[in-house]
Amino acid sequence: MNFITRFQLPLAIDRAAFLDKLGEHFGLTTEDEQSEVRTYTDCFDWRLYKSGFACYATSKKCVLEDLESGEVTTSFSCRKPPRFKEELPEEGAWPAVADAMEMRALLPLVTLRVNHAEYAVRNEDRKAVVRMAVREEYPEGEAAAARCSVYLKPMRGYESEFAALSGYLQTEGLTPKENAGHKKMFRRMGYDPGTYSSKVNVKLSPEMRTDEAARVIFKQLIGVMRVNMDGLRQDLDTEFLHDFRVSVRRTRSALSQIKGIFDDSFTRKAKDDFGYVGRLTNFMRDADVYLLARDAYLSMVPEHRRKGVDAFFQHLRRRRVTERKRMLAEMDSERFNKVLDDWEAFLDSPLPEKPAGPDGGRPVLAQASKFIRKRYRQVIQDGLAIDDATPDEELHELRIDCKKLRYLLEFFISLYPTDKMKLLIGNLKKLQENLGDFNDLCVQAETLQHYLDKIPAGRVGRGEVHISIGFLMGVLYSRQLEVRRQFHEKFTQFAGEENRLLFAELFGAKKTGGSH
Amino acid sequence: MKILAIYNIKGGVGKTVTAVNLAHLAASQGFRTLVCDLDPQSATTFYFRVKPKAKVKSLIEGGKFLDRYIKETDYPGLDLLPADFSFRNLDIAFAETPKPNKRLRATLKGVRDDYDLVLLDCPPNLTKLTENVFHAADYLVHPTIPTTLSTRTLIRLVEFFRDEGLDERRILPFFSMVEKRKSLHRELMASLPREMPGFLQTPVPYLSEIERMGVYREPATAFKGQKYAARVYGALWEELCQRVGLTENT
Ligand SMILES: Nc1ncnc2c1ncn2[C@@H]1O[C@H](COP(=O)(O)OP(=O)(O)OP(=O)(O)O)[C@@H](O)[C@H]1O
Ligand SMILES: [Mg+2]
Questions:
Q1: Cβ B70–A157 below 8 Å, yes or no?
Q2: A156 vs B71: CB contact, 8 Å cut-off?
């Protein structure tokens, strides 16, 4: 039932006392009483929240609500709360939820006890004249923190009774309130919805010392690593590991690009350390990438060849279990923890008066522009050297250069006009997509080749595995050719006049600042 | 929107209890339903615990004059136009309108977007008001006690329809207040449907549950615990839906 008017019961008045008092003035009958425990869920990075949804599960059902109004959008019956999008029904608003979730899991956030009772307020003929609901909510086990709302719904032909009741409630100290929705509820429970993002988002000022700016960037990166460790350890979904790795990669990329900022040997050691951290997770990520794309792979081969290809996935899944154990053990090791702890200790230590690297003390704006200029030139130079006869390896080199450039643009975005930076990043992204696809296809082909003889054939039979995987490789190879064919056009676009001017305008060696 | 009148020229045959219970069932199945209590005795109004209130104008003028008096009952989806003692003047009022037999029909057209079903509980007589009902209703549901006199009234109604050029197939009689232990009831229930093929096949027996509606002021179909009347009216309603072509989501 949709109740239109909501009143907040003052914290000092409890529900029973309120109903007793009301009963002295109005005839009241209980029409319905329900009590349930709701566990609100969202993805780690608040994908439902960001799409305007709130979702909870009880022991019987899963319900989707509108974040703003708190009203029910749709629901379905289920005993266990859904975790992945595959468990959602393909109707109503659920497909939109599934699209927002992608590969992320729904994790429990807040567990609320909700006591909902509906009443009819009756006149002397015992005719219902106003509908009323009283709803009490509190975190399970903390009844003392209960919040209670009273909702009224007028009945046609009994408007004056409605006015009398709502007037009475206000004289009793109840205040009319807008429907609160869920934003406030999350905050009350100590969450800060929508805040996590794996993106780099640091605010730098142009005059800041470059070594200080670098620390700010590194600090955010290690923050993202730390925040993902728990979900990564528990294997809640694949993206904890992914976000962790991306931050490791960004850290390494930054260490290799910001030359002359810290002490050289220190930088080299940190790079090695994070190389070790990244390598630990390599197998897991590769396996995840394949397993996430399992359906896509299976659909690339004809129906009768799928068993052979699936044998590969089964093998991968088993190996992932063993490799995960190995990774977790290593993550508990002294070495691993020392790398992160030491790095954090360094980032938190006071900035030395005299920079450790020759360029550490320069203002970050000039240094950032220098790094970006250099990387951009490199990308253009390498790209221009590529023609149809160039070996694949050189495209991979270019891909890595592009990634480095991308990271630089993202680290230092706050130093430049946002809209132009976004445009530039967008243009770079198009080229990166082509190079990324090409690389993925090459790596996939190599991986399949590598596994070909390692997959236990089992009931499917060795021959069948070979034929199926061979078929799949054929499909991948023709895609690889297609992607490579498109490279030239993508690169020409990126190297074009628009970007050249943008790079010159934003990062050109300026005579201002007097730092040289 | 379908309009069903519950009509019999005789009094005390179960018109009102039929209107009340069928209305409740229809609404509980999701039909947006309006019951109009056309009888100044206002028995339907009483069963729904509503105070008599409406003015003659509500049915003559319709529109906002009708809207103003409609009350929400205790049952979701079920509204009521309560009767009023002034409704005793309804037939005079209808007689004074330009198209004296079709005024009610025009009035009810005004709510066709708001309701899926309108049920008319009629007073026991044959006046200008009832003639309006004959023109407004798609069907006349006719509670018939299986007695000789009741049978005669039904036959007289059919004849009246023929004389007036109205379609007699719109009359849907059913047996009301049936007492199986009475041999006359049994005999008439066997013979009458043969002469009148339009008869509905679900009889409503004489039940103390139905009598108690006046004590509880509730439809018997809404009673908690006692369910026999609910089953009987459920069967009658289902049969009726088929006959008049009411399907959910109309
Ligand atoms: N099936 C039944 N079993 C028992 N009692 C019944 C049954 N049907 C009707 N009654 C009782 O008979 C009386 C008359 O019923 P009801 O008021 O429905 O008839 P009516 O045709 O509407 O009468 P009126 O013509 O006065 O409007 C009521 O007291 C009612 O409770
Ligand atoms: Mg009656």
A1: yes
A2: yes
DSSP string, A111-135: EEEEEEEEEEEE-TT--EEEEEEEE
pLDDT tens for chain A, 516 residues: list them.
566 788 888 877 888 889 999 999 899 999 999 999 999 999 999 999 999 999 999 999 999 999 888 888 999 999 999 999 999 999 999 999 999 999 999 999 889 999 999 999 999 999 999 999 999 989 888 888 888 889 999 999 999 999 999 999 999 888 888 766 677 777 777 788 877 878 888 899 999 999 999 999 999 999 999 999 999 999 999 999 999 999 999 999 999 998 899 999 999 999 999 999 999 999 999 999 999 989 999 998 898 888 888 989 999 999 999 999 999 999 999 999 999 999 999 999 999 999 999 999 999 999 999 999 999 999 999 999 999 889 999 999 999 999 999 999 999 999 999 999 999 999 999 999 999 999 989 988 888 888 887 888 777 788 888 888 899 999 999 999 999 999 999 999 999 999 999 999 999 865 444 343
- Among candidates A18, A58, A5, which has minimal Cα distance to A35? A58
**Residue A156: its chain B contacts at CB < 8 A?**
70-72, 79
Q: Assess contact for B56 and B100: CB atoms under 8 A.
A: no
- ipTM rounded to 2 decimals: 0.91
Phi, psi of A300 (to 5 degrees): -80, -15
Helix, strand, coil % in chain B, rounded to nearest 5: 45, 15, 40
Q: Are residues A476 and A413 in the same domain?
A: yes
A110: in domain: yes
CATH architecture group of domain B2-244: 3-Layer(aba) Sandwich (3.40)
The verdict on a CB contact (< 8 Å) between B217 and A120 is no
CA neighbor of A284 nearest in space, from A255, A319, A330: A319
Select from B46, B47, B58, B74 the residue whose CB has the most chain A CBs within 10 Å, as the one to mutate to test that interface: B74
> How far apart (Å, rounded) are the C-alpha atoms in residues B93 and B100?
9
Whether residue A144 sits in one domain with residue A249: no
SS3 category, B233: helix
Q: How many domains does chain A have?
A: 2
CA distance B68 to chain A (A): 7
- Residue A180: helix, strand or coil by DSSP? coil
Distance CA A117, CA A137 (A): 12
Nearest CA among A282, A285, A290, A288 for reference residue A444: A290
Where is B94: in which H helix or E strand? helix B90-95
Q: CA quadruple A28, A33, A35, A39: dihedral positive or negative?
A: negative
Q: How many CA atoms lie within 13 A of A499 on its CB side?
A: 22
SS3 A294: helix
- Cβ atoms within 10 Å, residue B242: 11
Provide the domain limits for residue A305: 210-507
Task: Tell me the nearest-neighbour CA distance from A3 into chain B, angstroms.
Answer: 14
CATH number at residue A79: 2.40.320
**Co-location of A275 and A169 in the same domain:** no
Q: Where are the domains of chain B?
A: 2-244
Beta pairing partners, A120: A29, A131
Beta strands in A350-460 (DSSP E): none
Tell me the residues surrounding ligand 2 (ion) with CB < 5 Å.
B 15-16, 43
Q: Provide the residue count of chain A.
A: 516
Q: How far apart are CA A382 and CA B42, in angstroms?
A: 94
Ligand nearest to the CA of B125: 1
Residue A513 lies in a domain: no
Same domain assignment for residues A157 and A47: yes
Q: Shortest CA distance to B235 belongs to which of B206, B205, B211? A: B205
